[in-house]
Automatic annotation (TrEMBL):
Keywords: Membrane, Signal, Transmembrane, Transmembrane helix
Organism encoding this protein: Rhizophagus irregularis
Protein name: Uncharacterized protein
Annotated signal sequence range: 1-24
Transmembrane helix as UniProt keyword: yes
Transmembrane segments: 646-668
Amino acid sequence: MVVFNKTLQFLIITFTLLLITVFAQEPITYNENLYNLRFEGSDTYKDGTIILLFTQGNNQTKFLDTKIHLRIIFVNRTILPVEIDYSSISDFIPQCNSSVNPLLCATTLTPKAVYKLQNKYQVEPNLDSKQEFFITELYNATTLVWRKFIVQNPNNLKEENGIYNISKDNTLIYSQNTFPLIEGGYATIMFMQTAGPNNITIHEIYVIYFRDNISIKQHLLYSSISGNTLNLAGDCKNSFDGSGNTFFFTDLDGSKPDIINPQNYNYFRIHFLSNGAISFVDTNYFDIRKANFLDYSAMEIIPLFYGGYLGFNRLIPDNKLIIIYDDNINIKQTLNLTYSFNKNGLNSFVMQKQSLLWFFNYDNIQTWNINYYPLNSIDVTDSRYIYQNPTVSETYPKINEYIQISGTNRNPFDFIINYNKPIALSSKNIIIYQYLDDNNAILRQIIPGQSELCQLINDTTISVKIFVSTLHQLNVKYGVKVENNFVKTQFDDEPLLGISEKIWTFNTSLEALDKSTNQATFTVRLNFDNKTIKIYNEINSKDSPLLQQFKDELVQAIPVDPKRLTIEKTLKIQNENSIFVLIFITIMPPYINDGIERSTNSVLKDLNELIYQKKYNLLSSGDITKFLDENYGVQIIPNFWEKYKVMLIIFIIVLIIMSCIVIFFSFYKNPKFCN
């Protein structure tokens, strides 16, 4: 029976994935209600979200209005139109002096930056968040100015900025490429040239790391002597499989007159780790006998999410050759497709996790459409595709599995993640969510990789403890997000990619209906100090809104029907050693015993565990619940009637019987008493 269930589950997942894949390849057609839209650029986020950028009523050289129009196409194929008015933002579109260099005034928009000025500006979004992006600007070929923006809410943009200056004399930066890091932060590949004595010019490639709360670090990746010019082939990208970052470049021998001849180029692939160490350098990697396929000096090569590379000649407008390579740069497949990727390059048209290439067609009137082409870089039944992670092979629970919750057992659950390479625990977290609906979720538990809740079972397997209180909502959907850098490779400490939201999901069911119990009154304790004395005083004031806020935070963290909780009173205690408030709360039994709302006893046990393990759940982030005393927990106030009612009833019955006997004998002994 178990084998049958597992087989059935596998078939369901496979069938679902096949449907999703087929559905994802269906074309999209969209009719605009705005006239004179001009397509400016496009990009694709790592999760497969496509973004298109249009302007209205602009010509090819000057922006005539202050609005841009975005069309965001989500993986589920819904389209969100967004209009941005940048009239209040000074220098949103950078201005340049055409008298100095008219070529630099060929301004075009890109959806990441909303602007781009040749190679001087580059914008990269965070690898795992659409609320953060990083801008680098090359200034006077000697200074790299960087700015990081974090969108905290629609009206608040936090900015951090800094400057990187070249430390060597007679050195200029002539090209740069910025990319996000798996462990957080950003890095920039910089091509530099230094004028030395005797007309010797040294060309060098550096990687510069910009990490949060860490000083900027620089590492040399490659150096070449006079006479050569280095050119980046495509962008620098992470390989996602723990082998580090990679990029391709050409080293042109300037001493030879025929610079068009591909035999005058040396072709390189460099792989380097997040600590700047070079893992390998490949030379003469391309077969120049196949030069008719591609002009390698103009080649754009992109690492694919599940291994291999995608190649494209970006300087031929009607190029029909998009080539899929394996990990060793052997040609696997040639896609005979006609499309110009000049606007933003091939990389912005690749849906990496879905293994799809998309093509945009616009009639410059009001209708545009998107067509999809499968890259066939991985089988859809492969676990790497299912989890959209090149290093995950299996998990427990499986995707969409049902977990049975015991009504009596309080032992934590052990979730398992199997990887396909040796790993070690790192600094980021696993996060458990409860989905309220398809678009809204609440946090249930955070498990840091370096905590006592995570344990290596062997070189490739991790066990993660999940509290019973985390999963005690019944017949609901849960999700697990594994953050990037939760684990790293065992041998070189390279951060590994995580599992995104809405992929690893599961459901819960109850083994047996929870037995109904009566109401109960209990106390919890809030601890304060001299720094938080203001909140302490306010929470005890008459009609303080903080008590209602405390209840709201408590209801969400448990969670429980708010009608079942009533705050009865507070007791304020302050002395030389402590400042705290006792809050008396009554919890009522479920109004409907349908097996979904838990019993009073079950809720109290969950709340007690939540308070004791506060640092791992939502209570620690509440404005009031963060003051809960984890050493106090939940203290139940005894209900003496419930506890002793049987004894009291027996005592009363015995008392009545004894009274009757005494009265009877009194009448019997003294009949005159009756008269």
